Amino acid sequence: MADRYKPQGAGTGSLYIGLSFVLAGALTFAFQSVSMRALGGPAAYAPVALLWNATFLVVQVLWVAATQTLGRHVAEREARGEDWSPVVSSVRRWQAGLLVLFLVAALLLFPLLTAEVFEDPWLTAAFVVAVALYAPEYFRRGIFNGHRQSTRMGAQILAEAASRVALAAGLLAIGLGVTGPAIAIVLAPVIGVLAVRPARVSRPSKPGGPFSAGKALRFAAPVLACMACAQTLASGGVILVGLLGGTKVQIGLFGAALIFTRIPQYVLSPVIGALLPHASRALSLGGQNALDRFVLRAVGVVGAAGVVMVAGAWTLGEWGLKLFGGSRFEADGLLLAALAALAAFYLLSETLTQALFALGHARLAAAGWATGLAVAAVCLPLLAAGVVEKVAYSMALGALVAALAQAAFYLASRRRPANHEA
Questions:
Q1: pLDDT score for 210
Q2: pLDDT more than 70, % of the chain
Q3: Interhelix angle for 10-39 vs 42-79, to 10°?
Q4: Is residue 321 within 8 Å of residue 331, measured between CB atoms?
């Protein structure tokens, strides 16, 4: 196959993907704002908040492992001039198996999900279909990551975000209510995949060794554990408020405040997720010192962004939330600052997770996230506060502990990198 595409370097690729995700984050902001204002208040918005957070909690848990596995191993093999197709085939097989397991489990749990979470079988069905349709979208992200096609990955996510806000606005305008944003959430990943295809790449110069599904799963299993713990901290709060007896107003308000304070996370998290192939290449080509410099720069940028996020939420959050969702969405600055801190510590932990993945220490990364989730679970019954504040403070503390644990694990393991194909 002719060489029709030149992979982008880390600097150029990061710039393109960063700009794309800024736009995608703004479109996500617009989707949520349009939904809140059109639906008229926290109680009416609560079903959208539940659907959004439940969908992306499960999507991240199930499908990010494929993205990370493809991004890491395709990038490493391409750097060595080896055939990457065994990696792609292996990941495709186990992702298909995981999709079947999810659909079977969703069918069995459908009545429980409807009764305890969504309170509407239509919303439960929308949740199941949306999660399933994100499987090919995240698989494609892994292909883009592995071949360093950052602009195409950014374009795909931009197409997804743009279609979601356009569909929601149009369907809300004709009076579909909650159904409008729900349909937009379901269809957006399909549009993203259809809109952007991977570029053709040059044929590898050397054959690649076998890459079995078992080998892929050995890397993916701790990634799945990371995502389960991380997404419970990041997105589980809305569901938890409902399970703890919160009213629809409290669910809708918590969901609006969480999404409002996480807008920078929607921009930065995909960028951080795309760091793994660059970190792997830095380690492969420059050794541990090169990886340390890469991680230090990434942590510095993410840490600075986190300070701005918390300070902005503390000083301008109350005004910003009303501007974002409407006058009925009221929350105090302390709650908004806590949710911004949750997002900031999540991003920091996510950055350090990529570094541990590059070293081959995915189990340590999972242990760091599990430690943070355990702390959040312990704090939840101990804090004397209302249900909304209790959930927010517990999750923020858990994310802080996860970040500290990730940092400690990286420093402890940096001098003994593991086998990269393990």
A1: 65
A2: 88
A3: 170
A4: yes
pLDDT of 2 strictly over 60? no
Type of residue numbered 50: L
CB of 128 closer than 8 Å to CB of 150: no
Q: How many CB atoms lie under 10 A from the CB of residue 43?
A: 16
Cα–Cα nearest to 17, from 277, 243, 322, 227: 277
Q: Is the Cβ–Cβ distance between 114 and 124 less than 8 Å?
A: yes
Beta bridge pairs of residue 374: none
Spell out the domain ranges in the chain: 10-413
End-to-end CA distance of the chain: 30
The Cα 92–Cα 70 span in angstroms is 10
Q: Which residue has the higher pLDDT, 184 or 270?
A: 184
CB 192 within 8 A of CB 333: no
Res 209 pLDDT > 70: no
Q: What pLDDT does 262 receive?
A: 87
**407 residue type, one letter:** A
Contacts of 297 (CB under 8 A, 6+ apart): none
